[in-house]
Specification:
alpha+beta; Immunoglobulin-like; Jelly Rolls; 5 domains; 11-stranded mixed β-sheet; 17 helices; 50 strands; 22% helix; disordered N terminus; alpha-L-rhamnosidase activity; alpha-L-rhamnosidase; Bac_rhamnosid6H; Rhamnosid_concanavalin
Length: 928
């Protein structure tokens, strides 16, 4: 072969390889943090994307976004709605739309292109769409709110009240669960798009031509219905037929109305109204013409087969009342009545939080008859769930199913501490095999007690219904899973699962404390568990909704109640506890820091200021004295109010923390006067706090509890010269208690944070790797499959509670070492600082940050330490490697000092620190 020809091929190959190495790819493009959102409710939506590239140290230096109302135009690189032009920026998240005015119900298409720091211009991303919602209340016209019946004004109660003692409540007339139908015509021409905008309160199920629309559960999300309600948007283009179509809607009570039936469990009494709905179907034909179908008096309504619907008490369904084909065109609705038009209350806005769905189906691991005619199904896992029943039997036979977290000593469903009595019931139609699941209620359970039926294969002399199958359907918020954790410790892996099941079980329309007894958005859980959950799930939308709920629930004097939405006005500290209400300041700040969205601070500045000013009004000489304190700490008495820490300490510490957040927020928003105001006030609070609570002689705060010292250290309330003694007191207290936990709901997260920040992760390991004292391991030993309300897994408390799960954060930031950089937001810069503690010899962690997936995997093998990491494109990290002898450190098989693309920073606390850019790295240290 000609030598020149060979040389030419080699040159071409090398050139092609170099081009390939410089390739940069755009992935995961999102509008409003969703792939193709519908019902976008803002005129300034945000755009985000992630990048992939083979070369190291890649960063974005510019981008260009195109938005069009016509996909064909966009394919020609024409953005007739917005062409940003080249914008020189490293930012690839939360880019604000800056084009022409966006129109209600319109669908838009967008794509993005980037330039990197190596001079490479990317290809255009794939095209994605977003559809606007109904931007103004007038856009709903002429659709009207409709109902089957209206509630008597004297029975309207909100905020509600908690039942106490033998208090009797009356209701003139209980709500019936309605089902609506609306026939409508579709022209015989090509449909370009068809969209349903619907709100059905408390909850709705929508069908079109006899088939359910979507796969959501409990739509729409919970809200404070006197202030705001949420609507949901569905694309039904492919479900419409030429000619006659029929919409069907069933409604349930949800939190809109809690039935006052004293034979069923009720956490609280609250009635905003009886079930109601509003709907608009917007059809656009290919020729540009449009047609709307609107809810009004012409819709027909009757009572549905749902005979009881309660978010707290369960659901009853009577299949003998079914009207087959009621939501199809073949049905005669002459016996139905016309809907009643009612007045609108509050503002309607699009549901931004991810919907609830069935996430997992669990089969029973055992079925046994514990009493004559009573069967217990064990599903092996405590979870937020409904049941899926498959049954066959006679007309009118009734099956009752009682869910429970655990059993009584004699083998019956035990609901004593999860809300009782609660049950599902199903009355059979007698038409062969029947399938049913509840539509508008759920519970937290592992077991189901069945009465009135027998499992398949069991002798049945009474001819009872036969259960062909009964399964547990786990329902949860569908926020994207973004984190994975595993390590060599089976105990820690099991603890991870324990916490994760409670997180999943309480990620509903709000972050609840428990999925049965309360189902309320207790706010201390939301802010204290925020980082733990955010490492595992993308909660930007969910937490944005929680902030909106706080705005709706905030009182005129600035108080943020302990729960949001506030459905019941609880007494005293259970409504006004600063450790809870401080979520109104902490969560907007968290959303900004974790997800990089400054608008959340701009939009909620008034919320934050109003609450801090309210706390200031409650102070006596800069100290707060009210609140629940370190709830459920481990003291000598039954857990509840703080036992080991004076109750004024934790609210004052949170008040100081709020002041500093508000000062920083004011600075970011260029509010100089407010910045100085809150900075100066924070200084005064710090002085007063130390004068009140610091014991100079003993070198600790208050009575020396884990919580008192940890929260003071975390909030930077401790003067510099006292920090060391304060930390020593914490560690000494833990060791003196044989590594036992005493910190409760408020203090435990700060205890873990302080120990990690101060290099004492070995103490965290010792506290949480044992099973003979109250804590995580102890709960596992007691048979818990989800996190319990009390450290001691008491039978008198909930066994599925989303508090005290803060070790999850340490699994990622400590063992995995993935930590946010204090000087950056959204993990644009981050830290890799793995903690090799106890007998753990490997760990594998991944986390999909807003900029891309971070990986951290380490292993100790023989005398070597191997650490493999991935840094996403457009980010940088500081990696803290164990040891100070750089001669022992290699990266990808070569001495690290020879690696020009890795920058040595310094040696600190026995670690060698390096700065690295994007790419995959394999560090090794031998001997280790």
């Amino acid at each position: 072969m000609n030598i020149l020809k060979v040389f030419g091929w080699i040159t071409l190959f090398l050139f092609a390889g170099s081009l390939q190495a410089k390739k940069i790819e755009i992935i995961d493009i999102r509008c409003e943090n969703q792939e193709c959102p519908m019902g976008v409710q803002t005129l300034k939506p945000t755009f985000s994307w992630k990048l992939l590239g083979d070369a190291r140290n890649l960063t974005q230096v510019g981008y260009r976004i195109l938005v069009s109302d016509n996909e064909d135009l966009l394919k020609k690189d024409i953005g007739n709605i917005w062409d940003s032009g080249r914008c020189n920026s490293e930012i690839s998240i939360n880019i604000l739309f800056g084009g022409k005015k966006l129109l209600s119900t319109a669908r838009y298409y967008w794509k993005v292109q980037v330039w990197d720091n190596q001079g490479v211009q990317s290809k255009w991303s794939e095209i994605k769409s977003f559809q606007m919602g109904l931007m103004k209340q007038e856009d709903w016209a002429p659709a009207r709110w409709i109902a089957m019946e209206s509630v008597s004004p004297k029975d309207v109660v909100y905020p509600g009240f908690q039942l106490a003692g033998n208090k009797v409540d009356y209701l003139e007339k209980e709500a019936r669960m309605p089902q609506f139908r609306k026939p409508f015509q579709v022209e015989t021409k090509k449909i370009q798009s068809a969209t349903v905008f619907i709100s059905g309160l408390g909850h709705f199920e929508l069908s079109l031509n006899g088939k359910k629309v979507g796969d959501h559960f409990l739509d729409p999300g919970w809200s404070k219905y006197d202030k705001s309600s949420l609507y949901v948007t569905f694309d039904v283009t492919d479900q419409l037929l030429s000619g006659e179509n029929v919409l069907g809607v069933r409604l349930g009570n949800g939190f809109l109305h809690v039935p006052r039936d004293s034979t069923r469990y009720r956490k609280l009494i609250s009635t905003f109204s009886f079930p109601k709905m509003i709907c608009k179907v917007h059809i656009t034909y290919a020729d540009g013409t449009t047609n709307d179908i609107n809810s009004d008096h012409s819709w027909k309504v009757t009572q549905s087969p749902i005979t009881f619907s309660s978010i707290y008490g369960g659901e009853d369904y009577d299949a003998t009342l079914e009207q087959r084909g009621w939501d199809t065109s073949d049905f005669n609705d002459i016996s139905w009545i016309n809907a009643t038009e009612i007045l609108a209350v509050g503002n309607l806005s699009s549901q931004i939080s991810m919907p609830l769905k069935v996430k997992k189906q669990l089969r029973s691991i055992s079925v046994r008859e514990t009493h004559p005619g009573i069967y217990i199904y064990d599903f092996g896992q405590n979870a937020s769930a409904i049941i899926a029943l498959k049954v066959k039997g006679k007309f009118g036979a009734k099956v009752v199913m009682k869910p429970a977290e655990y059993l009584t000593k004699d083998g019956l469903a035990n609901q004593n501490n999860s809300g009782t009595p609660y049950w599902f019931s199903y009355t059979l139609s007698g038409n062969g095999t029947e399938n049913w699941s509840p539509s508008f209620s759920y519970y937290g359970f592992r077991y189901v007690q069945v009465e009135g039926a027998v499992p398949i294969g069991v002798k049945n002399p009474q001819g009872l219904p036969v259960i062909e199958d009964l399964s547990l359907l786990h329902v949860s918020n569908t926020s994207e899973e973004v984190g994975q954790f595993a390590c060599s410790s089976s105990v820690f892996n099991n603890i991870y699962s324990l916490i994760d099941w409670s997180v999943k079980s309480n990620m509903s329309h709000v972050l609840t404390d428990c999925p049965h007894r309360e189902k309320l958005g207790w706010l201390e859980v939301a802010h204290l568990m925020s980082s733990s959950i955010a490492y595992c799930y993308d909660i930007k939308q969910m937490y944005t909704k929680i902030v909106n709920d706080m705005k709706d629930s905030q009182l005129e004097n600035g108080l943020i109640p302990n729960t949001a939405p506030e459905y019941a006005s609880f007494p005293h500290d259970f409504r006004d506890s600063p450790e809870w209400g401080s979520a109104g300041v902490i969560l907007p700040w968290f959303l900004y820091r974790w997800y990089g969205d400054l608008s959340v601070l701009e939009e909620n500045y008034h919320l934050m200021v109003s609450y801090v000013d309210y706390l200031t009004s409650r102070c006596k000489y800069h100290i707060l004295y009210h609140g629940l304190g370190d709830w459920y700490d481990l003291g000598p008495n039954h857990p509840g109010y703080s036992q080991l820490t004076t109750r004024g300490l934790t609210p004052t510490a949170l008040y100081y923390y709020n002041l500093n957040i508000l000062a920083e927020t004011s600075k970011l928003l260029n509010k100089e006067l407010e910045y100085h105001k809150y900075t100066e006030l924070a200084t005064k609070v710090k002085i007063a706090f130390n004068a009140k609570f610091f014991n100079v002689e003993k070198g600790y705060y208050d009575r020396g509890s884990q919580t008192a010292n940890a929260i003071a250290l975390y909030m930077n309330l401790v003067n510099g010269e006292d920090r060391e003694s304060c930390l020593k007191q914490i560690i000494a207290d833990i060791h003196n208690r044989d590594n036992s936990i005493t910190a409760g709901d408020i203090g435990f997260r700060y205890l873990l944070r302080v120990l990690e920040m101060e290099g004492a992760s070995d103490v965290i390991y010792d506290m949480n790797s044992q099973s003979d004292k109250p804590g995580y391991g102890y709960q596992l030993k007691q048979g818990a499959t989800s996190l319990t309300e009390s450290w001691a897994a008491l039978q008198t408390a909930s066994h599925n509670h989303c508090m005290l799960g803060h070790l999850m954060e340490w699994f990622y930031s400590g063992i995995g070492g993935v930590r946010a950089d204090k000087e950056s937001v959204a993990f644009k810069k981050f830290i890799l600082h793995p903690e090799m503690v106890g007998n753990i010899y490997w760990a594998d962690v991944s986390f999909k940050s807003p900029y891309g997936e971070i990986k951290s995997k380490w292993e100790i093998k023989d005398t070597s330490f191997v650490y493999k990491v991935t840094v996403p494109v457009n980010t940088t990290a500081w990696v803290y490697l164990p040891g100070v002898d750089v001669e022992l450190i290699q990266e990808s098989g070569k001495p690290i000092k020879e690696k020009a693309d890795i920058q040595f920073i310094r040696v600190e606390n026995g670690r060698s620190i390096y700065e690295i850019g994007s790419g995959d790295y394999s560090f090794s240290i031998s001997p280790y």
